[in-house]
Amino acid sequence: MKIVSIRAYPLYASFERLFGGADRVPPSMLAPASHFRLIPRSGQHSTVVEIRSDSGLVGIGEAFGLPHSQLTASLIEGVIAPALLGQTLTKPDKLLADLYTFFVALGHTRGPAIEAISGVDIAMWDLLAKQAALPLFEHLGGSLAPVPTYVSPVPYLASASESAEQARAFVQQGFKGLKLKIGRGLATDLEHIGAVREAIGSQTQLMLDANCAYAVDDAIALAKELRPFSISWLEEPIRPDSPDELAQVRRRSPVPIACGENEFMLSSFEALARAGAVDILQPNITRAGGVSGMLEIDRICVRYGIALSPHGVGSGIGVAAAVHTVRAAKAFSVYEANLLPNALRSELPLDPMALVDGQFVPSRRPGHGCDLNWDLLATYDIRSGATFTGAA
User: Which end of the chain is more exposed for a tag (fewer CB within 10 A), N or C?
Assistant: First the structure.
């Protein structure tokens, strides 16, 4: 089976379109976490990858879109596609190895270049599973079973009572765990954490995500205050690019430390594990090497005794690919069900993956099972219909 075409579609689903006007977008959508306080978030982004083979089969992938999906799209069509056209598709990681080397040699070890490769890798695995007439989880050697989730996020809300109300609503929907966004200073964080814990009771897992808001000393001070709240993990308390500093936080934290959604290369995940910086690794399949990368990160987790809990932000394609892949992973613990409004996750797939009793069940159709509404996709394509306002 040979690759005959590779296309990329840079998508943008604006919150203005979703809510019927810019003045109707809730403030918590514009700044749901600490890293959006300077540059407000204006919508959802994704780059869809389409690979066609000489057999007529089509594989679909997704590359992470933030902060602008055309970054990855241009790399896929301008650099990656010319290198792969006419190649025989065998093992995606082997076929993409030279491209990894090329990007690394140019210093592109983080961001759009690796995200572009990730999207292509997912599309290749989708194509291979379809050729084998198997669902992706089975093609990878996994078994069919529900995938447990926790729900995210309780975003930045104005008052602790609003955070508590949102958290309570998630529990009423059947979720056994939820994630609260923090990073507004120790006093404010503790106020919201306490209100949420009281609202959801002691039986619901509570995760915290600081989105890199703190320096080392402040992160340690926060962690020391968390013992009474039965916290499942503290996620990204500091910037993700210093394993040694994160290890300092972990050594003095009474709660587990999680990290990984902003990592790209296998060497970076290995460095976090080797430094003793994390209890949980959280790769995003659309930016950390695709299916191939996720499986390699799982092997790192197994070697170091670390849990695998993938980041769940993305369109329906990334969710489907991750849900299938974790069924073949050995260190998997729980998957993030991100419920921020996202038309690229809820409307673009012809058959969006449904949560049943707080769990995802992978499709039994060949491939990852996320088939798209291509007419709707065209309306979100920056190059043909959607207008990007310039904010993330």
Answer: N
